[in-house]
Every structure is written in structure tokens, then in C-alpha cells.
Amino acid sequence: MKLRTKVFAGAVLLLAAASVHAQGNLVVYCANVEDWCRVMVTAFERKTGIKVAMTRKSSGEVYAQVKAEATNPRADLWWGGTGDPHVQAAEEGLTLEYRSPNLDQLHPWAQDQWKRTQSRTVGIFAGAMGIGFNTKLLAAKKIPEPKCWADLLDPRLKDEVQMADPNSAGTAYNALASIVQLMGEDKGFDYLKKLHRNVNQYTKSGAAPAKALSLGETAVGINFQHDLVPFVLEGAPIKIVSPCEGTGYEIGSMSIIKGARNLKAARAWYDWALTREAQEAGPLARVSYQVPANRSAKTSPEAPDFSRIKFIDYDFKKYGSSEVRKRLLARWSTEVKEQPK
Known about the structure:
Shape: globular
Number of strands: 10
Order of helices and strands: HEHEHEHHEHEHHEHEHEEHHHEHH
Largest sheet: 10 strands, mixed
Oligomer: single chain
Number of helices: 15
Radius of gyration: 19 Å
């Protein structure tokens, strides 16, 4: 792979979908952190005058909702979150083909996402999977700092590791798929079964373990590294690690939902979201630390340095496919989550 280059509690901004549709505005399902969703909505409304109703959910939840609403879509556009569920939605015909005039401004890896899905989704950022840990908690418990995936199996970490549920969170599915690709499927599941003994909670949201780390509620969290950065900058005793064996990465994506009632507005967001201006909105507001897809957009200096990370050759087409994704999730639920510790 070659790349050149706050989460807060509160009510989700919701407007009545029927009212928004009647006004000809825009309904967006956002699968990035809430602060970033709000920054984008504000910037887009100011730029275009188009009013936006935004609902924030995890990637897996958005996919499930889009699928459930397929015969009567309530949203027009799905912005952000890991690419795997976007790829599955594209394969299942839940999203629309669209070529933005700004496509050529993107890095090849972002354009490749568009090509892989027959123009139904596009890459908007990249982020690395990693491990975060609370240095104070580990020191107090006299547990060595983890450097590798293997270190998370240390018996001293029993009930000290937190990760999300891959059925609801794209972050956790990316971690699951990364481990399977790194180790092989059977060995990967053997690893996940052993890891299960040390997991204290499978959260609904992929970013939740990062918050728990900052509050001292867990010693170790499996997260995208960019989700850990805001808490480090706020002074939390968190250290971010790229696993020594290698790690996966995401291509955050964007899709127009099939049956969108406000198609013109959805395309306006889509085109704008690929521009340098929009791609820098998150980093400038200090709410996102991913690598932006637009080649001219600046990456936050606090973002993880991809040149120092050992990446696997993540197979987005295979692990974003409906067949493989459903099978891995079912196997994880049966062989890992439902098993006693």
C-alpha cells in the first residue's frame, strides 16, 4: 500500500425526514465521529444554502438501516465510515452509480474504491487500524505495554481489552478482517477466541473504546488510530501503537442512496465533499485526523504517520463483499462473542 501523504455526547441533529423531503433539501446518514459530521453539515449549508438533516450512526448500523429502507429510502446520502459496508451496499444495489467531476482530484486509492464498486462509492479518507493503551493503568497494574497483536493475549490483560462489535461497527469489522488477512482465517479466529477472554466489552460504536481509554475505564482499546488522537491531544495518558506484525487500514467512503428523493442535493454534497475545502474542514476544526482523499488537501500534522506503519495488503473487494462479510460476521458471533470466557 502506498499513501502519499472529540467525540462528545449529545443529541443527534435530526429533522423530520418528510419535512426535509418536501422542502427539497438533503438527508444525510453520517458514520464518522459526531463532531466531524456537524462541522461538515454547517460548512455545506453555509456554502450552498441547502438545509441538511443529519443522523449519526456507526457504519454497520447505517448499512443495516439503508438495507431495511431499500423500498422506501429515508435518506439521500451516506457520508463516511469504513468502506467495507459501503462496498457491500454497492454490491447489493443499494446505492447509485455516480461520477463526480472532482474524481480526478483524488489519490489513486480513493479512485480505486470507486472503480471496484462500479462507481457506486468513492474513497474520502484513509485511516490505520491500531492499538491504544492507558499508560497509567498499565503501569499501576504492572502490565507490559503491548507492541503487537500477540501481546493482547497476555493473561494479565483479562477484562482489560475493549473493542467494538463488528456487527454494528465498521471499525471492528476492519479489525476482524485485518486479523484474518494477517494470520489466515482459521488461525485468525483462534486468535480472536483467545482475545475474547481478555475483552471486557464489545461496544456498539467503533470509537467508544477510545473514549473509555481516556476515562480510565479500560486499559487497552482496539481502534482506528485517528480516533485516539483527539484524546491524546486533550492530555489523556494514551499511547498509540501500530502492531508489529502489521495492520489493516480503512478507506472511508461516501455513497448516494438508491431512491434518493433529493438527488440533486445529494450530488451537490458528493461533489463538494471531494474538494480540498471540504476535505480540510475536519482537520482545520481539529475533529478528524485521517489522510484526506483529495491530493491537494493537507493532512493534520497530528495524524498518524503512514510512512512508519507496516500495512497489510488489505483486500477491499473480497472483504467488502456481501458473501464474505456475512460469513465472517456470523462466524465471529457464534465462535467468539457467544462463547463463555
